[in-house]
Amino acid sequence: MLAGALACAATPADPVSWWAAYVRAVALPVLDAYLTHGVVLEPHLQNVLICLDSAGRPVEAIFRDLEGTKLVGHDLSELHPRVAEALTYDASRGWARVVYCLMVNHLTEIAATLALSDAALRELWTVAREILEEYGAATGWPLPLSDLLAGAPLPAKANLSVRWARGADRSAGYVPIANPFA
Prior knowledge:
Elements: H1 2-9, H2 15-37, E1 39-40, E2 48-52, E3 58-63, E4 70-71, H3 81-86, H4 91-114, H5 118-138, H6 143-149, E5 154-157, H7 159-164, E6 174-177
Antiparallel strand pairs: 1-4, 2-3, 5-6
């Protein structure tokens, strides 16, 4: 849906405003799911459908393919231990997964598609920062969000090593990469 909308409109008439609406529609629900409810979504580009208004601006995100959704901080002791393990992450792994999927795998791609120059890209990330700062202020500045906005390196999943070892995706490690908020 997004690719079709962008292909029809080429670049939105006001990419900064479009981006702000996009970040609100995608990033805020993902962050709130994790920080408020302990739900780890995997908002890869292919897992998110964007609802557009009549002007072509994002108004809502629909998260699909919830197979990788996990829980953090939930008591699943009533379940068989293997089932509970399959449904959970510890807090640091859960946050790494959220940030990897949202920032590295998703928002950086959309920003790169919208930005026609390095200056435009910096402006998009400034707008994203402002939106996340508003969210942080409204939610009491959860530490993971504070660290993200302070420029902590982003986790990029080390897929190649997992594939070579024929390991489960869950066992993938992360390597630090530059944070656009740094």
